[in-house]
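Need residues for this backbone.
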């Protein structure tokens, strides 16, 4: 069986985790957490990075920092993971979904402005498959309407839009280091902060509402409860696991890109026959090979292809069920405008195996099976 995903592992993870244990500092904000924060800050050129227990928690922190209140509205695509919406719904916000572009599956930037009301507080673009949304347009809308931007860049580390790292355009950006991501700590994430004026509050919210970060830096003689907050700090052992992969980030990314390009080359003939559609990468976007997907004719064909591949030892999966059609989406959100592409395109999309240790031979086998399905 060729798994859909195998979490990345470089060989240094266990060594670094042992080092974390030997440091006798395995709780949050230990040496490896700081190394990860510094690596991300340097790589993305963001002002501040704070490692978190998940991308969900990074987005919750962003919602706290954006001061989301009951009745505020947040504009986002419906084609995303539930965490994008949950973080704002927990603060009492109403989620306003708009349609996606069928080419990238990202939010349609041309539809955002019409969804803005006097209650709109945040635009939350989601960089699907590590391919950047049209951030110039989104940031222009945000500036003109005095809105904040929180980027869901869960899949976007090592990706850029016009040469700038995803997650660094808005006030806040959120990365994921879940086991399915390009770099993993099992469960984990990171909050990227563009403006230093938010850093102090971010540290307080992240440290259970206390100024303990200041205390450890020697800026106060004792730490106190300053505000509401929660425990968003990952164990330093998890950070040690992640740091081993960040050190090889370029190698891991290049390996994934090699496999992605092999998929593209081998499946292009099927696309030229009109049997499937392949991913589209805008010329000004550099992606990170987070996933390789194809689009089938419809849901029925996709289901048959999934079964066909499974029978031949290939585990493929579909992705999100649009949030606006889910019970919680109906309760906490509304779809603005026409659902022209979100549902239709989501029902066609099929993800093929993609992970660091996937081999060229495995890609060749997988693509042969896809061709066999369509040429049967």
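Answer:
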């Amino acid at each position: 069986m060729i798994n859909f995903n195998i979490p990345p592992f470089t060989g240094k993870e266990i060594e670094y985790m042992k080092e974390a244990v030997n440091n006798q500092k395995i709780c949050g904000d230990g040496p490896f957490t700081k190394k990860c924060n510094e690596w991300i800050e340097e790589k993305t050129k963001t002002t501040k990075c704070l490692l978190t227990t998940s991308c969900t928690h990074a987005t919750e922190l962003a919602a706290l920092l954006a001061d989301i209140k009951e009745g505020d509205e947040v504009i986002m695509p419906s084609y995303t993971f539930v965490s994008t919406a949950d973080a704002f719904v927990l603060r009492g916000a109403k989620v306003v979904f708009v349609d996606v572009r069928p080419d990238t599956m990202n939010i349609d930037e041309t539809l955002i402005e019409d969804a803005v009301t006097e209650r709109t507080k945040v635009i939350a673009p989601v960089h699907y498959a590590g391919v950047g949304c049209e951030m110039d347009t989104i940031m222009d809308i945000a500036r003109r309407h005095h809105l904040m931007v929180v980027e869901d860049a869960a899949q976007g580390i090592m990706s850029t839009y016009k040469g700038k790292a995803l997650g660094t355009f808005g006030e806040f950006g959120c990365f994921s280091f879940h086991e399915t991501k390009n770099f993993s700590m099992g469960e984990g994430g990171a909050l990227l902060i563009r403006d230093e004026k938010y850093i102090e509050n971010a540290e307080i919210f992240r440290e259970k509402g206390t100024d303990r970060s200041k205390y450890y830096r020697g800026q106060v003689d004792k730490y106190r409860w300053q505000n509401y907050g929660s425990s968003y700090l990952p164990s330093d052992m998890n950070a040690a696991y992640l740091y081993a992969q960040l050190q090889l980030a370029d190698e891991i990314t290049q390996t994934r890109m090699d496999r992605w390009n092999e998929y593209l080359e081998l499946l292009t003939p099927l696309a030229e026959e009109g049997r499937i559609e392949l991913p589209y990468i805008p010329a000004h976007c550099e992606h990170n090979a987070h996933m390789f997907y194809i689009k089938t004719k419809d849901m029925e064909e996709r289901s048959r292809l999934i079964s066909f591949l499974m029978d031949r030892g290939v585990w493929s999966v579909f992705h999100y069920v649009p949030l606006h059609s889910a019970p919680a989406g109906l309760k906490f959100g509304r779809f603005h405008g026409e659902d022209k592409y979100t549902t239709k395109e989501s029902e066609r999309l099929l993800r093929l195996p993609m992970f660091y240790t996937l081999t060229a031979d495995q890609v060749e086998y997988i693509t042969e099976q896809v061709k066999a399905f369509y040429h049967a």
